[in-house]
Specification:
GO terms for molecular function: nucleotidyltransferase activity; sulfotransferase activity; thiosulfate-cyanide sulfurtransferase activity; ubiquitin-like modifier activating enzyme activity. This is Adenylyltransferase and sulfurtransferase. It comes from Pedobacter steynii. Helix content is 35%, strand content 18%. It is of the alpha/beta class. An 8-stranded mixed β-sheet has the order 3-2-1-4-5-6-7-8, with helices on both faces. Strands 9-13-12-10-11 form a 5-stranded parallel β-sheet. Helix 2 packs across helix 9 and helix 5 crosses helix 10. It is globular and about 65 Å long. The N and C termini lie far apart (61 Å). The C terminus is likely disordered.
C-alpha cells in the first residue's frame, strides 16, 4: 500500500508519443502513476499505427497527445493527465521539466535527446532513456542521484546526430513495445526508491536472439558543465499572453501579421497584414531592420509560433506569437 501511494503521488513527464512513448504510457497508467504528463506536437500518420499502440486508423491526422490521453483515460480514469501539445525547444524545456519528478525521453532524434538531457541536468531530474535501431533496443537512466548523463555516454553529439530516426531506419514493433515497457519499469523503480536502477549502466536488447548485454559508463564533470552552459543565454520569450500581446501591439512601428487562411480571416480578425504561413518565406524583409518588432497571430497559436520561429532564425529576435491564438483576446474582433 505504501508503494502504491508513492506511485499515486509521482509526477512523470513522457516526451514523445511514438513507438516507445505509447507502451511506456500504457504501463505507467496501468501502474497507477498519479500525474502523467505527455509532450508532443506531432500529428498521427497512417505509418505510425503499426507500432504506436495507443492509436488506430480513424485517428489519422489528429494530435498524438489528445488521442493518447483519451485512450489512457478510458483505461484508467482515476489519474491526472497533463497534455503539452507542442514540440520541445530551448525556450520551453526548462519550465516543462520543472513541474515533474521524473522525465522519460521517448523521442527518436539526438537533437531532442541532448536538449532533454541538458534540461534535466539543470533542473536535477532523473531521466529515463530508451532508443531503438531496427531490432535492437537500448535502455538506461541518466542523472539519477548524481549518476552519469547522456553526454557522459555519448561524448561526441555531432556523430550521434547523424544516426537515422526510426522513421528512416525502421523499427521492429516488438522491440519498441519491450523497451517502452522497460522504460516504465525504470520509472517505477525510481519512484519507489528501489535498488538496481539502470544508472551508469546501458542495457542492450536484441529481439531476434533475445540476448541482453550491459555496458557500464562513468560520470564526466565536463559533460555537466556543457549542459549548464547551454542555458546561460536565455532567449526572449517567444510566446506572449493575451494581455502582453494586446499591450505590445498598441505601440507604433510594429508589424502585426495574421498567418491564417483567407477563409479564417473572413470570419474574424484583429487587423494587421495578412500573410498565410505557407507564404511567409516569400515575405520581403528588406524594409525591416533587425530591431523590428513582429507580432504573429493565428487561431490556436501553433502556426503563429512557427512564424515567429522562422523570423528569429533569420535574425529578428523581436518576433513574437500570440499564445493560444486570438480566442484568448478580450478585445474587439473585427468581422468582415
Amino acid at each position: 500500500m505504501k508503494g502504491q501511494q508513492k506511485l499515486a503521488h509521482a509526477k512523470v513527464l513522457v516526451i514523445g508519443a511514438g513507438g516507445l512513448g505509447c507502451p511506456c504510457l500504457t504501463a505507467l497508467s496501468a501502474s497507477g502513476i498519479g500525474n502523467i504528463g505527455l509532450a508532443d506536437g506531432d500529428l498521427i500518420s497512417s505509418s505510425n499505427i503499426s507500432r504506436q499502440t495507443l492509436f488506430s486508423y480513424p485517428d489519422t491526422g489528429r494530435y498524438k497527445t489528445a488521442v493518447a490521453i483519451a485512450s489512457l483515460k478510458s483505461r484508467n480514469p482515476y489519474l491526472r493527465y497533463h497534455e503539452h501539445r507542442f514540440f520541445i525547444n530551448e525556450e520551453n524545456i526548462l519550465s516543462l521539466v520543472k513541474a515533474y519528478d521524473i522525465v522519460v525521453d521517448a523521442t527518436d532524434n539526438f537533437q531532442a535527446r541532448y536538449l532533454i538531457n541538458d534540461a534535466c541536468v539543470v533542473k536535477n531530474k532523473p531521466l529515463v532513456y530508451g532508443a531503438i535501431f531496427q531490432t535492437e533496443g537500448h535502455l538506461t537512466v541518466f542523472n539519477y542521484q548524481n549518476s552519469p548523463t547522456l553526454r557522459c555516454l555519448f561524448r561526441e553529439p555531432d556523430q550521434e546526430e547523424a544516426l537515422p530516426s526510426c522513421a528512416e531506419s525502421g523499427a521492429y514493433m516488438i522491440t519498441t513495445n519491450i523497451i517502452g515497457t522497460m522504460m516504465a519499469n525504470e520509472v517505477i523503480k525510481i519512484a519507489l526508491n528501489q535498488e538496481e536502477v539502470l544508472s551508469g549502466k546501458l542495457l542492450r536488447f536484441e529481439a531476434l536472439d533475445t540476448t541482453t548485454t550491459r555496458v557500464t559508463y562513468s560520470a564526466d564533470q565536463q559533460s555537466k558543465t556543457k549542459s549548464y552552459s547551454r542555458f546561460k543565454h536565455v532567449p526572449k520569450a517567444i510566446e506572449l499572453t493575451a494581455a502582453a500581446f494586446r499591450e505590445s501591439t498598441q505601440r507604433t512601428g510594429i508589424a502585426l501579421i495574421d498567418v491564417r487562411t483567407m477563409e479564417e480571416r473572413k470570419v474574424q480578425h484583429i487587423g494587421g497584414k495578412h500573410i498565410p504561413l505557407p507564404e511567409l518565406e516569400q515575405f520581403d524583409l528588406k524594409g525591416y531592420d533587425a530591431s523590428q518588432h513582429f507580432y504573429f497571430y493565428c487561431q490556436t497559436g501553433i502556426r503563429s509560433l512557427q512564424a515567429a520561429k522562422k523570423l528569429r532564425a533569420k535574425g529578428y529576435e523581436n518576433a513574437f506569437s500570440l499564445k493560444n491564438g486570438i480566442s484568448t483576446l478580450n478585445c474587439e474582433i473585427k468581422n468582415t
